[in-house]
Amino acid sequence: MATSMNFSHGLKAELVQPYNFEMSQNLRPFLEEYWVSSFLIVVVYLLLIIVGQSYMRTRKGFSLQGPLVLWSFCLAMFSILGTVRIWKYMGTLLFTRGLKQTVCFSAYTDDTIVKFWSCLFVLSKIVELGDTAFIILRKRPLILVHWYHHSTVLLFTSFGFKNRVPSGGWFMTMNLGVHSIMYTYYTLKAAKVKHPSMLPMVITSLQILQMVMGTIFGILNYIWRQEKGCHMTMEHFFWSFVLYGTYFILFAHFFQQAYLRPKGKARPKSQ
């Protein structure tokens, strides 16, 4: 058994070696304090939505095509790089140690690659609030699923980071993967480059699938909670279940409204 575990560890180390930039200063101690600040950031975010919409009510929307292309492109590149690195790590961990290690045990969160990208992932949730600024300044419809998802993901990500929630690794992995496609689509759309007409529906479908998988991982975490070394509390389970559940309902409703409503009726628009 020990030989098998050592072999798995060796295989993981051989397949996923950190790059020099991933071994930079660890921001974890600083960001763990950020958990409290995240509430203030969300409050300011929601207040700015109210102020911004009030300011733009009697004004013409801005085009912002160039800034939007650059914004979406940068977020797409970040998501793609994060996806390549984290998917490779989590996939290696999954096939060498098993699903339970990736869902129930938090030891892997101390890995150099995971620490680096999880820190950037937490910070990216603040940056992504800028999506809402573009919607308001361009006078596009700001729907519930957008601001609710942006604000609660920020809180949930910082909560999971601080408490080292084991299934948070899959949350980050899936989120980066979906965002790689989503922000690439936003870039193409803002640049007015032709893209597959089914792409928006595919993205929303992937978002719904992400919520389903997140719920499954949460349930598995609950089932395996009695395992020795399993890092799971009822607080972790409750909040992940509540948030994934509400995300599923909101994205499923958006899917129905955007893609299944009869033609001729108003449909919600994305960024």
UniProtKB/TrEMBL annotation:
Q: Report which residue ranges the record marks as coiled coil.
A: none
* Alphabetical list of InterPro entries matching this protein: ELO_fam, ELOVL3
Q: Which UniProt keywords apply?
A: Endoplasmic reticulum, Fatty acid biosynthesis, Fatty acid metabolism, Glycoprotein, Lipid biosynthesis, Lipid metabolism, Membrane, Transferase, Transmembrane, Transmembrane helix
Pathway this chain belongs to: Lipid metabolism; polyunsaturated fatty acid biosynthesis
The membrane topology noted for this protein in its Swiss-Prot or TrEMBL record is: Multi-pass membrane protein
Q: Which domain of life is it from?
A: Eukaryota
* Entry keyword annotation includes Ribosomal protein: no
State which Enzyme Commission number(s) the record gives: 2.3.1.199
Please describe the post-translational modifications of this protein.
N-Glycosylated.
Its transmembrane ranges are 34-56, 68-87, 144-161, 167-186, 198-224, 236-255
Report the subcellular localization.
Endoplasmic reticulum membrane; Membrane
- Which reactions appear under catalytic activity for this entry? a very-long-chain acyl-CoA + malonyl-CoA + H(+) = a very-long-chain 3-oxoacyl-CoA + CO2 + CoA
Q: Name one Pfam family in it.
A: ELO
* Role this protein plays: Catalyzes the first and rate-limiting reaction of the four reactions that constitute the long-chain fatty acids elongation cycle. This endoplasmic reticulum-bound enzymatic process allows the addition of 2 carbons to the chain of long- and very long-chain fatty acids (VLCFAs) per cycle. Condensing enzyme with higher activity toward C18 acyl-CoAs, especially C18:0 acyl-CoAs. May participate to the production of saturated and monounsaturated VLCFAs of different chain lengths that are involved in multiple biological processes as precursors of membrane lipids and lipid mediators.
Q: Which family does it belong to?
A: Belongs to the ELO family. ELOVL3 subfamily.
Q: What is this protein called?
A: Elongation of very long chain fatty acids protein 3
